[in-house]
Design brief:
The structure is a homodimer. Chain A is α/β, with parallel strands linked by helices. Chain A has two domains: about 170 residues, Rossmann fold (3-Layer(aba) Sandwich), CATH 3.40.50; about 110 residues, 6-phosphogluconate dehydrogenase C-terminal fold (Orthogonal Bundle). Helix content of chain A is about 50%, strand content about 15%. In chain A, helix 6 links the parallel strand 8 and strand 9. In chain A, helix 7 packs across helix 11 and helix 10 crosses helix 11. The two termini of chain A are about 30 Å apart. Chains A and B meet through helix 7, helix 8, helix 9, helix 10 and helix 11 of A and helix 7, helix 8, helix 9, helix 10 and helix 11 of B.
Chain lengths: ~300, ~300
C-alpha cells in the first residue's frame, strides 16, 4: 500500500476522483477530507470518498503521510499557512493547481520554507462539473499528470507522487515550473481567454439578441468554455499572469494585424495566414490524438 | 411542382444537397448541373443528383426557371457574367453565398443590372466535408435559410425561393443585406478568425511541438475550424471585409485590454469580464438550442 493516511484538502472533482482512484487501486489506508463547504464534506462521507472529515486543516494533515491540495489557486497560500506546525515527519505534499510558479510561491510564503517533500503537480483532467458528486474513479485513466519538482524536491518524494498517479492510471511527465506555466498558458489558459473575449465582445454589441439567435452550432461548442467558473479563471489569470500575459500579448497583436489585413482586403496575406494555420493544425492533429484531456 | 427546370451552378455539398432535397420532395422536374470540376459532375450524374451536366454556364441556365448559384464568393461575378444573354424570361435566380452585399455587387456588375427575380440567400448549414459526395437530402431539415431581398427583388420571386427552401424542410428568415453581413461576421466569420489566429500564434512559438502535444481536448474542438478551406475563408474575408473588419477591430481591442488587465494582475476587472461573459453565454444558451446549424 503506497499511502497509509491521505489528507485531501478540497474534496471536489479533482480531489474526490484521486481519493476514489487510490481506494479502488488498494493503495490507500485511510482518507481524511477537508474543505470549506461542510455539505460537500458530508456528501463525500456518504459516498465513501473519505473515511472522516474535518474543517480544520491542521487536524486534517496531522499524521498524514500524503497530502493532496486541490483548493483554488487563490486559497493555496492560506492553506499552506494553516498546515504550519501540523506536518508529520516525512509527509509528502503535492497539489493539483493549474499554474505552478504561483503554488510554489504560496508554499514558500505560507509554510515559511520550501520543503524537500513538496512535489508540485497538475493533472490535465477535468469535466464541466465540480464538487464531490462529479468525482469518479476513472477520471485520471490515460490522462497526463505533469509534475514540476522544485530545486528542493527530494527524489524519493517525487517517486512516491509518481507512483501515486500511475496507480490511478495516469501518465506522469516531468517539466520545469516555468515551462509548465508557458505550455498551459498557450494550450489551456489562452483558449479560455479567447472564448470569454468573444462572448463579451458580442454581448456588448447592439442587437446582441439577434446575434446570439443566429449563432451557428460550432459557435456554441466554441463558447462553451466561456461558461466556466469566473472566480477560478480570475485566480488562474492572476496566478499565471507572466506566462499568460506574454502569450495574450502575442495573440492580441496577431488579431490586430489580421483585422487590418481584412480591412485592406489583402487576400494574399490572408491566404498565407489561413494556410499556415491549417497546415499546423493538420500536422499536429496526430499528436493531439494522444491521451485525451481537458481544462 | 415548384420548379420545372433547375440549374445548379456548383454541385457540391450545398448545391448537391438542395438538388437531392427538391427531388425527394417531388418539387423539381429536371436538374442541370454545372461546375468547374468535370469529375465531380460525372459523380453527380452517377449519384442521380443531376439529370444532365454541362461545363458551359450559358447552356446550363438556358431554359431554366430556377437557378441556384453555389460557387465560391470569388467566382460569383464571372458566373453572373457568363449567364448574360442566356436567361429565360421569368427565371428566378438565388444563391448560397455566405456574405450578401458582395454577391449583390457581383450580380450587378456581372449581369450589368440587378434583376427583379434575383433573391440573394444564405442557408446556414454545412459540414466539414465538401463535394457532391458529401451532399445529402436532409442537410437543410430544421436549418435556417436567410433571404436578403434587394430593393429590386419582386415579391413573387421571393415567394418562390421561400417555397423552395420550405419544401427542403428549412426555416426561412428575412433580413436586410447589411444586417445579414453583420450578424454572420459576428457569429461565424469572427469565430473562424479566432481559431485561425490561435493556431497561427501557437505554430509560430518556439517548441510548438511540445505545446501542441499538451493541448487539451477542448483545444482540439476549439481549433477544428482552423482546418477549414483557406481559399474559401480568404474569399469570405474579402467579400465581407467591411462588417468583419469592424467586429474584428472590436475584438482585437478587447483582447488587447484583456492582455493588459492580466499583465497588471487586476483581478477585479478580470472577474467582471468573465462574469459578464458567463452570464451572456448562459442567458443565450436557450436561444442557441433552436435549429441546429453550422458554418
Amino acid at each position: 500500500m503506497l499511502i497509509r493516511r491521505l489528507a485531501v484538502i478540497g474534496v471536489g472533482l479533482i480531489g474526490g476522483s484521486l481519493a476514489r482512484a487510490l481506494r479502488a487501486a488498494g493503495e490507500v489506508g485511510e482518507i481524511i477530507g477537508c474543505g470549506r463547504g461542510r455539505d460537500n464534506l458530508v456528501r463525500a462521507l456518504q459516498l465513501g470518498v473519505v473515511d472522516h472529515f474535518t474543517q480544520d486543516i491542521g487536524e486534517a494533515v496531522s499524521g498524514a503521510d500524503m497530502i493532496f491540495l486541490a483548493v483554488p489557486l487563490g486559497a493555496m497560500e492560506s492553506t499552506f499557512r494553516a498546515m504550519r506546525g501540523h506536518l508529520a515527519e516525512g509527509v509528502v505534499i503535492t497539489d493539483g493547481g493549474s499554474a505552478k510558479a504561483s503554488v510554489v510561491e504560496a508554499c514558500r510564503s505560507g509554510l515559511g520554507t520550501l520543503p524537500a517533500r513538496f512535489v508540485p503537480g497538475h493533472p490535465i483532467a477535468g469535466t464541466e462539473k465540480s464538487g464531490v458528486e462529479a468525482s469518479f474513479e476513472a477520471l485520471y485513466v490515460g490522462r497526463r499528470v505533469i509534475l514540476t519538482p522544485t530545486d528542493q524536491t527530494a527524489s524519493d518524494a517525487l517517486e512516491r507522487v509518481t507512483s501515486m498517479w500511475r496507480s490511478c492510471g495516469a501518465e506522469v511527465a516531468l517539466m520545469s515550473i516555468s515551462h509548465h506555466d508557458e505550455v498551459l498558458a498557450a494550450t489551456s489558459h489562452l483558449p479560455h481567454m479567447l472564448a470569454f473575449g468573444l462572448v463579451d465582445t458580442l454581448a456588448r454589441m447592439e442587437e446582441n439578441d439577434e446575434i446570439f439567435r443566429y449563432a451557428a452550432g460550432g459557435f456554441r461548442d466554441f463558447t462553451r468554455i466561456a461558461s466556466s467558473n469566473p472566480v477560478m479563471w480570475r485566480d488562474i489569470c492572476v496566478a499565471n499572469s507572466q506566462a499568460l500575459g506574454k502569450v495574450m500579448a502575442r495573440y492580441s497583436e496577431e488579431m490586430r494585424v489580421l483585422a487590418e489585413t481584412i480591412q485592406r482586403e489583402d487576400g494574399d496575406t490572408l491566404l498565407e495566414i489561413f494556410s499556415r494555420a491549417k497546415a499546423a493544425r493538420d500536422r499536429y492533429i496526430d499528436t493531439l490524438s494522444g491521451p485525451d484531456s481537458s481544462e
